[in-house]
Specification:
The chain is α+β, with helices and mostly antiparallel strands. It is 37% helix and 28% strand. A five-stranded antiparallel beta sheet has the order 2-1-5-4-3. Strands 7-6-10-9-8 form a five-stranded antiparallel beta sheet.
Length: 734
Amino acid sequence: MKNDLSLYPRDVLVAILDNVNAFVCVMDAQTDKVIFLNKFMREAFGFRESDSYIGSICYELLQGRTTRCEDCPIFKLRENPDEPVIWQQVELKLNNAVFHKTAMLIDLPEGKKAHLEYGFDITGMVNAKDAIEMNSTIWESVPIGFVLFDENLKFIDCNNKMTEIFGVEKQDLLDNLPDFHPEYQSDGEYSSVKQKELLRRAINGEFIKTEWLYTLPNREAVPCEVTICRTKRSDKWIGIAYTYDLREQKQMSEQIGYQSKLISELSIIAVRLLRADASGLGDSLSDSMGIIANSIKTDRISIWKRAVVRGATEYKLIHKWTGPYGYQPESPETGGYLYPYPYSWEETLLTADNINSPVSNLSKFEQELLMPLNIKSILVIPLFLQDDFWGFISFEDCTKERRFSKEEIRILRSAGIMMISTVNRCEYELEMRKAVEHTELMLDSVPLGCQLWDENLNLIDCNHAAVKLFGFRNKREFLEQFEIRSFPKYQPDGRRSSEKSVVNLKKAFETGRLRTEWVYQLLDGTPLPTEITLVRIQSNSNFIVAVYNHDLRDIRKLESEAEKSFYDSLTAIPNRRYFDENIEQIINTLSRSNAVLSLIMVDIDFYKKYNDSYGHAKGDTCLKTIAAALSDTLTDKSDFVARYGGEEFVIVLPYTHEAEVVKLAQKLLDNIMSLNIPHESSDIADCVTLSLGVATGKVTESHTSNDFIEAADKMLYKSKNSGRNRFFHTVMED
């Protein structure tokens, strides 16, 4: 049925439309001239009833345009006159209010048509929906498991992270959570009794943080850190127990504590990898692989990453280390098959099993692939992140047949995980299925500091954990002062914190996520090293970035302790312990190919007289200057100088022949003389000088480190008895 305005007097129609709580606008369908605006619309656009707006072009009057908008509904109405057009529109002139609008053609007298538009303000409804979606997506990005319980201590809900930890369906977990406890906790208390006590204390208002032991259906122990608190919902208290799986952390601690020698090596690797940036990552991986290769006596190590490209499995070589026997010709990669590794191995690796065998025990096909590459034994260890197959690390022995022990595999798996751990947290994506009440609960109570930033790079929210981490009194103070008081002027790389923060946020908005290290400062100015994870979250048509903060102070402490254990505190060069632990590995490696080793024992001439004349402070300065000069003289990456004891140093030079070491020894004497360190009490010169003893030779299986040390020490003794400030050298017998 068509609409006809002529059926009603104009004053009646005007009275009706002026009292409608909606925008009403009528235009001539042919000329676009305004025929009528109701009271609601006149007031919104600032027109008075007496204003001469009647007859104005609609888009000039209401939008300030010179041409009609491309999305104007009149185009659709002219194509389908009997079909109303319905849409939503943001009115920029009305503070971005959102209107639900309808347009239609109505009949006028004399066969004319009018274009009628009316709209209702739905801004409040849209904002409410946006808030729910925003809160829900925030909850989805929180990387931690939780379970909810009511005032009767009954478990009523949990998130998917909890079901991932235990490998069961949600309802099974809620109904049978006590079955996932051992009979006793580590403190000797009954699990069932202690659990009820902790839940009751939390529901009564106490904030609880403790360690808790679960067991999986396969009886595997799962150590966790549990935080329990309560929140108000619908006039009732709801309890929340957050669960953080500590298995990886516990496993790493056990591995590091396994043996003192392995602690030192893994600690060195961890320090180097944690300090590496993109430009130095290759060197850090090479150094780490070299340490591993020396400890387990292997010749080639490779890291490969798995990817599925257009439905086919491919592997990318991330990094490779090769020793003297590890030469490998360049080999092409093909889709679905990676030379030289048999594709069938992937089935074994996907089950978390290893390939560990002498090549002679493998199939004929596998032998044909590996033997031309001089591989005698091979170990391939799969690497998983968040239970997903990431790739593998391979270790190849080119000199003898062997099977790697369980102890070696355990150590090597840990080292491999260390090397790929930079991608670990980037793969966190949690599924969330609850509404705004649960989301707000998580944002305010989760024990992981989080800040939210909008697309204009404004800080818009934070959680209570962030307030507590940085020491602010409340959330309001945090939002007002965080950027002022918690950002140091510069980051460790020399860039301004304010500028680098903008770069990080923009990159997160562009790429979706970013993980990097960042140094904040506490309110008293104390540095706070952290690892920050920036996650882009879509909320309706807008984006925000959530920044999660992981406190690195404990890790930095471990780095410092690991570094101190191998370096001399005075001279900052490797110490005697470092020399003792590395010289045997070097001897073993070189003996396999009868390679050459040179060793130089260094002694400062009349150092006791120097100390007596100038004092111990000057003596310490002299030691540091000599150590730096010795280190600066070395050019090869595998060479190193260590403080052997007191005023003695030792220089280790793998693959350095007699002619080369003789030149180096003379250069060392000349360099120290050129420093011209005054030494008035010296019997041979008016400055500090050195005496050297040099031993060179091919390393055989019968040689030990003591053979080279004793030979070099004899030459040192000869230099000192022959007048000092000189060197003598000897060539070891094969």
